[in-house]
Amino acid sequence: MLTGLSRRALTCVLAATAALLPMLATASPAAADPPAACPATGIVSQHFHSGHNGVDIANSRGTPIYAIGDGQVTISGYESGYGQWIRIQHPNGTISEYGHMYQRDVFAGDHVVAGQQIALMGSEGQSTGPHLHLRIWSSPSANQGIDPEPYLAARGVTLPCTPGVGPRPTPPVHPAESGRVVSARSADGRLEVFAAGANGVHHAWQNKANGTWSAWQSLGGPANAELAIGPNADGRLELFAINGDTFQHRYQNSPSGTWSGWENFGGGGKDIAVGANKDGRLEVFASGPVGVFHKYQNAPSSGWSNWEPTGGGPANSRIEMEKAPDGRLEVFALNGDVFQHKYQTAVNGDWSAWNAFGTGGRDLTVDHNHDGRLEVFASNPNGVFHKYQNASGWSEWEATGGPGNAQLTSERSPDGRVEVFAINDNTAQHLWQTRVNAPYGQWETFGTGGTEITAATNADGRIEVFGASHAGVYHKWQTGFATWSDWAWLNTTSGPALN
Predict the structure, then answer these.
(1) Where is the M23ase beta-sheet core domain (predicted)?
(2) Each residue of 89-123: pLDDT tens digit?
């Protein structure tokens, strides 16, 4: 299973004309750029000039560093001459880059807001003392930076500056994919993965962010379960597992720390999904023979409500959740006959009635475009179809090709493009947007057949994919941002078989 694989081409190819989505091809430019935020307090120790592609702001080690504007983190990693560094893509097309930090507080794929703390000042890499090296690029393809000082001044910030005080808006926390294999990042950036087999749930984790993997550990818990994972407001991950007889959960005792034992969470059912409200409270949806029910935290990182009906929903359905740009959760549920969805009518608030969303299918995945619009993919015997938000609501369903009756997952590349992965008994394939908020290319082979697939993002932005079969759980990861490794076991061990 999952051997003899193609590598992703370095250049994406546009799909056939019939598959183009004109309304997604370009984003309308803003009338004016919003005000910038002060990147850090300190003195300007070196200005922009021909031999210095940025501006240096010097201060003591540990001085907070802030995002100068709203955007998405595309790189959060380490480079020998630069130390720890971060790159943020902004809605106007420009990129801000921050170097020499000793601590990073955001990771690739995160959405940030102007004035949000992203790092602490350090002196890593080629540096003579603690400072922030700030660069501004006009576009992702630019090979020469622009002077940060006039760029900031045109947006209301003159260096040296004083960062704003008071609470800042919290960027959205998007739900992780649910399924029999799930993965999420701990607070320290390490990926953790869980897989449910016939003898319960198994667990493996990265030994450090972006690093190698532990051996698989057996946790017990529900056999052949569907899993969901979400972050509490205090940074602790929480895992949920359901099968036809039981529903249990377990959680980290501290951020990035050890895990509790299994605790009862409800009766049995078909599938689950979990997402974080804008105020940080986790909310869980579960399907069963009579529809969909939900349960939510009464306060962030706190106790739970009783189970409540949701007014129907597809029986024994597959469920996924996503988050709208304003922070409202949205739930999508599909079974063999019907596809429905519902959404919060207000942030942290009540829910709409279930609405028709399409006909039945095998599996679904939901993601968000770089501009925040939701995009839904669903499989049936004829392949994979998608539907996306536009100015008037939702598009019609459109065919993308791909394998029939596939298990689906999706993730975002470091620059914000959605990438979709599909697996059935015979093949694994993937496709991706040719640019942010844009049409998709064509499906390409990603491996041979299997039973389950999920994707997550490393702390440095590289996508990592986990595929399961009757033999165990494999993984495959981006070796750069356009090339892939071969499939391999985690830590040379197979993990649980998923039939």
Answers:
(1) 51-138
(2) 998 889 999 999 988 988 888 888 899 999 999 99
461 torsion bin: left (phi>0), alpha (psi -120 to 50), beta (else): left
Amino acid identity at 489: W
Element (H, E) at 418: strand 418-423
pLDDT tens digits, one per residue of 120-159:
999 999 899 999 999 999 988 888 899 999 999 888 899 9
User: How many CA atoms does the CB half-sphere of 371 hold within 13 Å?
Assistant: 19
State whether residue 327 is helix, strand or coil. coil
In 90-150, the DSSP E strands lie at 95-101, 103-104, 111-112, 117-120, 131-137
Strand pairing report for 237-242 and 226-231? antiparallel
Q: Is residue 96 within 8 Å of 67, Cβ to Cβ?
A: yes
User: Over the stretch 202-211, which tens digit does the pLDDT of each residue have?
Assistant: 999 999 988 9
Strand partners, 442: none
Structure tokens at 424: 């059935």
Between vectors from CA 455 to CA 450 and to CA 457, what angle results, nearest 5°? 155
Does the reported pTM lie above 0.85? no
Residue closest to 463 by CA, chosen among 185, 252, 201: 185
Q: Which residues contact 497 (CB under 8 A, 6 or more apart)?
A: 197, 198, 468, 469, 470, 471, 472
d(Cα 286, Cα 306) in Å, to the nearest integer?
13
Q: Position 287: which residue type?
A: S
CB atoms within 10 A of CB 81: 11
Give the closest residue to 436 by CA, choosing from 471, 454, 412. 412
